Amino acid sequence: MYQSNYLANQLSNASKNNKQSVFAVLNDDSEITYDSLFKSAEQVAAALVEAGLKPGDRVAAQVEKSITTIHLYLGSVIAGGVFLPLNTDYTPSEVEYFLVDASPTVFICDPSKEDALSLVANKAQVTSLLTLSKDGLEGSFVDAIFRQKSGFEAVPRNADDLAAILYTSGTTGRSKGAMLTHKALASNAQTLAKIWHFTSSDRLIHALPIFHTHGLFVAINVTLSAGSSMYLLPKFDADRILDLFSNATVLMGVPTFYVRLLKSKNLNQDKVQNMRLFISGSAPLLSETHAQWLDKTGHAILERYGMTETNMNTSNPYVGERRPGTVGRPLPDVEVKITHPDTGETLPVDGIGHIQVRIPNVFSGYWKMPEKTAEELSTDGWFLTGDIGVLDKSGYLSIVGRSKDLIISGGYNVYPKEVELVIDEVPNVIESAVIGVPHPDFGEAVVAVVITKGEVTEEAIKIATKQQLAGYKQPKKIIFLDELPRNTMGKVQKIVLRESHKNLFS
Ligand code: MCA
Ligand code: AMP
Fold first, then answer.
1. Which of ligand 1's atoms lies nearest the C-alpha of 471?
2. Which of 141, 157, 173 is the last residue of a domain?
3. What's this model's pTM, rounded to 2 decimal places?
4. Which of 236, 418, 458, 492 is least buried, going by the fewest C-beta atoms within 10 A?
5. What's the pLDDT score for residue 163?
């Protein structure tokens, strides 16, 4: 259909002979056909071009989840743009960093944030700032879409051209933009659709946010690649998901989804009779959650492992043993090795070390950060994930830790450094250490340990973090100590802090 545009062509291929089939069922039960999906995406593409977009320009968006946001993603691809989705929870000061760094031509935000964000957009010299309401039905961007005629001719793009930049936080507190090509996105989606046995009969429950790899590329691209359909939920809603089980076939979620669904009295084998697959990723799924789910539903959750930079790397099998506590085997075309942290040598089976992956279509590097790219992506294609793991003799990978100082809370990544920098600016704070501790709902929760030299109230720290950081990064608890534990080299021993506060939420 879109011969000259690599990703648009690949994503529309499965539905090209069946355009009247349903792509999405919305919360009000209205249905969006594939025909209407791509026609709307073409109008969006025309609106983006009208707004000044040229091939290779970035299209940044901080908008809520709606079908219009999916049109925007596909429209950006069709217009030859580079899509840059932003977490809707980011504060204007967080958004400023991304806009200044990526210098998008078009930026689309919620009308309620327009005033605050227009200052930021001006600083970043954005050409067009447009708005899109939460339900995707109003705003200057919708007006622009309505002005367009249908039948936009896709802008030619090759396999190696960029389709998206997704920012991932960095250990220094500075986020890095992972550059993803048309081919990287298409090939991973096709592989996943195949190994997870997606067909046009599948109905996915889509309750994830769509500004990250999981909800955007894994869920949407896999659905498109197989010509399947989805129930598009604005966000996670346990009761709605339980109701949908009788008509849906697949759920993709972070572990918190499963923990929350398990709390429902209505979850049982009858309820999930129609479901064929439950997938979990983005954060470690506790073996205990896996066992409880199996017990209640008769289904073994399929856990997989991925990263923004690499897309998905490994998966437990569709047919065969889904081993709790492991993330399965490498996907076709993916190589995984475990290397010694000091020597870099490849370790034998059962050796614990750095997880490195090699994929033909890994990201093309970090936007404007060649030195960071070189640190993590070797010239022979091996990518240092920052995760610590072990491969067993049957090739199953287990993630046992992280070499990066990272907290994963409800599937969102929080880099402690970023939070520490904000807390350290509060008057009378000498220093802080931000750690992740076990949390029954989010897996890990952000906790700040703070050392002060005079009176500092918890409130003062909360105000500072609230002003500058998205909600999920804000500490769930603040603890004041006289000093931080340090080793003989003077380095803060977070491991000691994590141990002494491990029962904070139990
Ligand atoms: C919301 N809050 C959180 C989180 N989410 N705090 C910590 N961690 C979180 N994940 C805050 C809210 O701001 C609120 O704060 C309070 O917690 C309670 O919110 P609640 O209503 O319970 O949360 P929710 O709206 O129900 O959201 C929870 C959620 C959501 C459904 C688990 O966080 C979510 O959809 N997570 C999925 C993230 C994801 O898609 N990750 C994929 C990244 P207050 O009370 O102060 O207002 S892609 C990736 O990782 C790789 C590539 C991969 O492998 O997939
Ligand atoms: P992101 O930076 O959002 O791309 O997150 C990637 C990180 O999420 C990985 O490096 C892992 O640390 C983590 N991750 C993803 N899937 C899993 C999983 N199934 N189990 C444990 N950690 C995971």
1. 13
2. 157
3. 0.97
4. 458
5. 98
